[in-house]
Amino acid sequence: MDINKGLIETLTSSECGIEFTLSQMGGKWKPLILWFLAKKGTKRYGEIKRFIPTVTNKMLSQQLKELACDELIHRKDYQVIPPKVEYSITEKGETLVPMLDFMCSWGYENNK
What we know:
The chain is built from seven helices and three strands; from the N terminus they run αααβααββαα. A three-stranded antiparallel beta sheet has the order 1-3-2. A hairpin with a 7-residue loop joins strand 2 and strand 3.
């Protein structure tokens, strides 16, 4: 997965991959959702909402759908009454964890 340093320095903005990465996991809520599921395991909607209390229900639902569509999280619907849905991080989503850990550490260290 490592790209040659010389090659990186010659890439254009559209080739470097940052824009694509941000389109998949960027924004205010997606990194938090991914990090939470990576660290805490499978969770239900309400547990995710409690972890991010400032997100609206509409936005959380939208972000979860997008993450599932992009195959970064898995949505399991149990088809029971009352409804039970669980979310977990996928193998593809796990590949983002080192970047999310770095973001967490950087923010913690520099938010003083």
